[in-house]
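We examine the record.
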Amino acid sequence: MEELNDQQHEDIAAYLTNRMPPDQRPVFEAEVLQNKALQDELALQRRIRRGVHLANNRRDVADMYARVKQELDNEEAEAKTGVVKRPNWYVPMAWVAAALIFIVAGLFLRPAIDRLFNLSGSEIGQHHRPPHRTGQDTLSSDTSSSVSPTDTIHMPITDPSNLDMDRQLADTYFKAIPKSSPPPIVLPNEEVDAGALTDSEAVGRDSIAVLQAISLLQKQRTTRAIPVLQQTVLEGYPGHWRNTAEWYLALGYLRNHQRPQALAVLDRVAHIEGHPYQVEAKKLVKALKR
């Protein structure tokens, strides 16, 4: 078998990490189609990169599990020394830990394994990234011009009954386990660039951030959860987890006595077709505007 030279190895690395200039990519791909040794090495490097990426994801899941387990141990220790006061919307952390591991592990393992087994026989993928968020993926101009969803200034509400109602509504709609992410849609003969791992990594970070924020909300640490959700809404990858962050951010605002900010986010969610929490947002907006 023909051995590759140093330049060809450098070209493979540049191609897989998207550092190769756009005008050189077609030339390199044409060379790969004509060089069996180059094809084999490119396929091998793709498998290695997928394996490393999968190992990193497993380590992240293990770290999260360790943190949740430590929290469970701390709660058990507190229970032995005294009574632990639990909020109304508290559920056993064991269920949250199990759901967290299941959601995040499934998010990463399924596409990685599917792509690994479908690698043989696939042609050279062309790198594709979705366009920057537009339309419904961006915060509407009406919302940002009136009340920004990232505005953490406490808006005074003079009627104490409103405060009680906001907290009760937040308690009613809060779920410690978010809706699951739908499985990815794989088009027939879809070409996949093995080097384009940035998108899945971004989705993974968003899912971890949202689950951590939900855990904070569950423990009544609202002021700590809000900034995490705000960052995910503004900087997160368009899709399920950023949409989920919007919903829980609205609930956090309600618990933090920030009804105007909550309504700004809820109005947006209620008008996005296909949003996982569109139905709930419509009901909550209606209840708040009675």
Summary: The chain has eleven helices and no strands. The two ends are 76 Å apart (CA to CA). Residues 247 and 277 are 7 Å apart (CA to CA). The mean pLDDT is 71.
